[in-house]
Write a structure and sequence with these properties.
501 residues; alpha+beta; 40% helix; 21% strand; 13 helices; Glycosyltransferase; single chain; 5-stranded mixed β-sheet
Length: 501
């Protein structure tokens, strides 16, 4: 069955006639045997929820490990885990029956599927079996594991194949899944909590998109899917392999965004239980990896990780968002523990921010690759958020500087020489302020071009080598076009070089 195209916005009254906001993102909404592509103003765009570059260049789909095939041993381990927790009275009999039946139905569906659809569902079913075999299919992990399995069973039976990275929700639910090729639909805590923050913002600003029921529903759902991790805290986990990390793993950025969303909604909805849920999640920032996200940063202070499985990957934007989440929670609730966690790590952030600057752009992580345009903007936004909250002048300085890197044109300066000799190489030297494509053109007085080249140069000095074949007063034109932002900002400089015999 094909997608049904729809232009109306999710959660808006039938009376609303305004067009979708520019920031609305597409989500596939599943309703039984139908799927609709919907522009939802609360759903974050892909750039906002992309999980990033965990260990350098993004792993290709071919290099991503796949879950082991479903086996009799794995299936037996799932059934045994369910019986064990029922016997211990850690799960309700109704949940036991529902989850066991869902697992059986998934096995039956697998037998009817083939090709790529079978691969997606097999990965998710195999992940549940892997948790059971390692005795990590615990009572608090069962709700999310079996929900994810059921959603994948629903989707892969007959619904249209999604694009990589597509976000998916199911009618009656507010939480978001994302499609990862070879790994099926995976619950995305960061995307879901960003959606909750967007819903809160609509209501806080009195906008027509306000839907308090949807906000309550999304946080109630996520509260029910929190997993007891370690001894003293809960977390919202990712249950798939990603960039070197095997499931289940957690993200400090997603955790902090969840804490922030719960605190904000608690005020709006007068729901104190959300504060208690958020407090139970603070332990992630007190616990070392791989259980938690607290580590030592490159400047020697406390740093909160994006990925619990990567203790030496210090991602600048994720760290700042973790601090913003802790700060907002502490400010809303007066919670001393959250304030202490913020105070312990914020000095490290001040020292790390300059380490993200390469002079004309930002780095994604310490000693790592330069940011993509999307990640540079995300870092700038978080710096501005720190600045707006008056958390330090350094954040304001770098937010302004990074905005300049985005919008300022390249500055091109000719360094010489002004003379040359026939048949001797002349190095036409210049400085450029940012990564640019540089074009040089040398012309004779009559306008005839005698030399032309284009090359890419990073910030700093560069040169083109030209060998003149006769004497004259030549015009040298250098043009720079910046490459990172796609805005095509340019600069040009013209000079003269006198060549003699």
């Amino acid at each position: 069955m094909g997608y049904v195209k729809r232009t109306a916005l999710v959660a808006l009254s039938a009376l609303a006639v305004t067009a979708a906001p520019a920031h609305a993102a597409e989500v596939i909404v599943v309703d039984g045997n139908k799927a609709e592509r919907v522009q939802d103003p609360a759903v974050p765009g892909r750039a906002e929820i992309d999980l990033g570059q965990p260990l350098g260049p993004r792993a290709s789909a071919a290099s991503t490990p796949r879950a082991r095939s479903s086996s009799a041993r794995g299936r037996g381990a799932v059934y045994a885990a369910l019986r064990r927790e029922l016997r211990r009275k850690q799960i309700k009999r109704s949940d036991y029956r529902r989850w066991r039946r869902g697992f059986v139905l998934a096995q039956r569906t697998l037998r009817r599927l083939s090709g790529a659809r079978r691969t997606q569902l097999l990965y998710v079913a195999g992940s549940v079996e892997a948790l059971a075999l390692s005795r990590r299919l615990t009572p608090t992990r069962m709700p999310v594991a079996f929900l994810q399995l059921e959603r994948n069973r629903q989707y892969w039976r007959r619904l249209p194949y999604p694009a990589t990275g597509a976000q998916v929700s199911f009618r009656g639910s507010q939480i978001l899944f994302q499609y990862f090729p070879g790994e099926g639909l995976q619950l995305h805590p960061l995307s879901t909590f960003k959606k909750a923050n967007a819903l809160h913002g609509f209501c806080e600003r009195g906008e027509p998109e306000c839907d308090e029921a949807a906000l309550r529903r999304i946080l109630d759902e996520m509260t029910a899917l929190a997993v007891k991790r370690g001894r003293h805290f809960i977390a919202w986990e990712y249950l798939f392999y990603f960039g070197g990390g095997y499931p289940p793993w957690m993200s400090g950025m997603a955790q902090a965004t969840g804490i922030q969303a719960l605190a904000r909604a608690s005020q709006l909805l007068s729901e104190p239980t959300y504060i208690e849920t958020a407090r139970r999640a603070l332990g992630a920032f007190e616990t070392l990896p791989p259980a938690g996200v607290r580590t030592t940063g490159p400047a020697g202070g406390v740093h909160y990780l994006q990925y619990s499985f990567a203790p030496r990957l210090w991602i600048f934007n994720a760290f700042l968002q973790s601090l913003i989440g802790l700060h907002d929670f502490a400010k809303i609730t007066g919670d001393e523990r959250a304030q202490r966690l913020y105070n312990q790590a914020e000095p490290e952030a001040r020292k790390e921010v300059p380490l993200s600057d390469v002079g004309d752009w930002s780095r994604y992580s310490y000693a790592g690759n330069e940011s993509t345009a999307e990640y540079h903007e995300l870092l700038r936004e978080f710096l501005q958020s720190m600045c707006t909250r008056r958390l330090g002048a350094e954040y304001c300085e770098y937010a302004k500087r990074y905005r300049g890197y985005q919008v300022d044109p390249p500055v091109l300066t000719y360094r010489g020489p002004e003379t040359g000799v026939v048949d001797s190489p002349v190095g036409l030297s210049f400085n450029v302020s940012k990564l640019s494509a540089i074009e040089v053109t040398v012309t004779r007085p009559d306008g005839r071009v005698v030399f032309s080249r284009v090359a890419t140069f990073r910030r700093g000095g560069g040169s083109f080598t030209w060998t003149p074949r006769g004497p004259s007063l030549f015009t040298v034109t250098l043009a720079a076009k910046e490459l990172r932002t796609g805005l095509g900002k340019k600069d040009r400089v013209t000079t003269e070089v006198e060549v003699t015999n």
